[in-house]
Amino acid sequence: MRIKTVANNVYSVGVVDWNVRHFHGYTYSTLRGSSYNSYLVMDKKIALVDTVYGPFAQELIGRIKEIVEPSKIEYVVANHVETDHSGALPEIMKLCPNAVVIGTAKCKEGLAKYYPNNWKFQIVKTGDTVSLGSKTLSFIEAPMIHWPDSMFTYIPEDELLLSNDAFGQHLAATERFDDEVDNCVLMDEAAKYYANILIPFNSQISKKIAEIVATGVKIKTIAPAHGMVWRKNPEQIINAYVNWSKGLPLKNDVLVCYETMWNATEAMAKAIVDGITQAGLEARLYNVAVSDRTEILKDTLNCKGIILGSSTHDNNILPAMASLVDFIKGLKIKNRFGAAFGAYGWSGESIKQLDSVLRECAIDVLAQPLSVKWRPSDEEIKTCVEFGRSFAESLKVK
Ligand code: FEO
Fold it and tell me: What is the pTM assigned to this prediction?
């Protein structure tokens, strides 16, 4: 694939992973694949910023060789320890054993554990710089965006921010820039990335953006470690991060998620959605057993209401819903309003459990849980519609 120039003498030499469909184990679905972006900075001294996932090391090396012999690399910046960016580091360091690896103190600690080594290492903090000749590498620590070791590298002469995971998207493509791909797809993947990985770090992200803005640095291009480089409109992704990191829903929509055994809970869910729309709000309805959890979690960015339903099975919530609930808990999604519902045969524990889980998650519960025995009668369907309508009316004034 053709190597593209990100800025004057800065080349995108990373790789596209067309076939990856799961990330972070099986916690994140990457239905559009991904890329591991690595940037080669050519100057009097040569630096490589981030590497790629280990299985792609030779592909990275081949692309570097199209520009320069890897032995000439003097600095390898490790913005982040996670193996999708550091996996190829040992292979790179074999080719330039005298190069200095640059990263945060936590990065050094992490790399030593992943890849026991005797590499020269320079620990950097925010404000530290390394001159390459005509270009400067300036470092900005970014702890918990999204690991303790995370860091950004900024090249002031190019007004180029190499942001690693931040501002990234899991999107495989031969294109490399924001203006070369469909903007809806791009923003959809960026939102999915934020919702599934970064929500727990909202406050760190919000503070870091404010800190960078306060320094007055100019950012013409943002080159993340996954997906497209933001060269046409970096403000679009910065503004999106500013909005998402507030932790507030962007719309009044209601997310209705359910899992059902014999369609009784499903009938309730559909009636609840009818009620929500009768009240003038929009809803997103998912049977979680057959839906992509990564997509569902993305929708939490827009939805102010979260209504969860499950049949009861062995005194418990059904398994796909239990998994979704774990993610909602783990992501610490705040500033939302919820309710629980479900059909049951004899005891109905799942509905009480869902109600408790919503409360544990600090989701403000707006209604008593709604349960139906066996299957909803016509009258009970009307009750479900009213449940949805009443929930939406309450939500409107929150
Ligand atoms: Fe793309 Fe945190 O690794």
Answer: 0.95
